[in-house]
Amino acid sequence: MEIVVLRLGHRLERDKRITTHVGLVARALGASGMILASEDKGVERSIKEVTRRWGGDFFVQTDVKWREALKKWKKEGGKVCHLTMYGENILDVIEEIKKEAKKDKARIMVVVGAEKVPYDVFEAADWNIALSNQPHSEIAALALFLDYLQQGKELKTKFEHAKREIVPKRRGKEVRIRE
Ligand code: SAM
């Protein structure tokens, strides 16, 4: 299954840190890449630097025309999961989404917003999904969704060609470094 995150409404400066964290969570928890509707080379650079050190081939694309990207994704058979507190509760739709995700070459785009999300996203989405119907954060919503979708398997992902790799320890810290 391929998972790509579409981050909407990123405001320069104000959302820098949150959008970087959206990208880091996406990378760490099994997505292949993040598409950003605005141009922010700083965010792109930070995430790419983490990927360079910690491995994998997570991609970041900025300044993407998101309406076109959504349309193309759907035209090519991909499904769209928009995370919003107004949506259906994850517990009521996760089995349906997992069924879709098990299909051969399944592609899931996960959309998260910042400020008000345009209504056409609600219409274009195959599922509008609430991770509880209470307001919180795109970072938390994304992490929860990726975990429900992959049933925890993403937590043991191995990252290829990593220069840094943590050796898990009950106490203390050990990092294997390959330069
Ligand atoms: N006030 C904005 C609105 O309602 O259009 C949303 C602000 S919220 C901080 C930013 C993003 O976090 C949302 O677009 C959504 O993707 C995500 N989010 C926040 N709470 C959520 C929830 N309970 N379930 C799913 N996604 C959520």
Total domain units: 1
Helix-strand string: EHEHEHEHEHEHEE
- Per the CATH scheme, the topology name is Alpha/beta knot
Per CATH, the architecture is 3-Layer(aba) Sandwich
Termini Cα gap: 31 Å
Share in β-strands? 15-25%
Largest sheet: 6 strands, parallel
Query: Radius of gyration from the CA trace?
Result: 16 Å
Gross morphology is globular
Q: Count helical runs.
A: 6
Ranges where pLDDT stays below 50 over 5 or more residues in a row are none
CATH H-level superfamily title: SPOUT methyltransferase, trefoil knot domain
Question: How many beta strands in the DSSP annotation?
Answer: 8
Assembly state of the chains shown = single chain
Task: Please tell me about this protein's structure.
With 179 residues, the chain is of the alpha/beta class. The chain is built from six helices and eight strands, in the order E-H-E-H-E-H-E-H-E-H-E-H-E-E. The protein has a single domain (2-177), classed as Alpha/beta knot. The protein has a six-stranded parallel beta sheet with strand order 3-2-1-5-4-6. Strand 7 (164-166) and strand 8 (175-177) form a beta hairpin. The protein is globular and about 45 Å long. It binds S-adenosylmethionine. S-adenosylmethionine binds at residues 83-85, 112-117, 130-132, 134-138, 141.
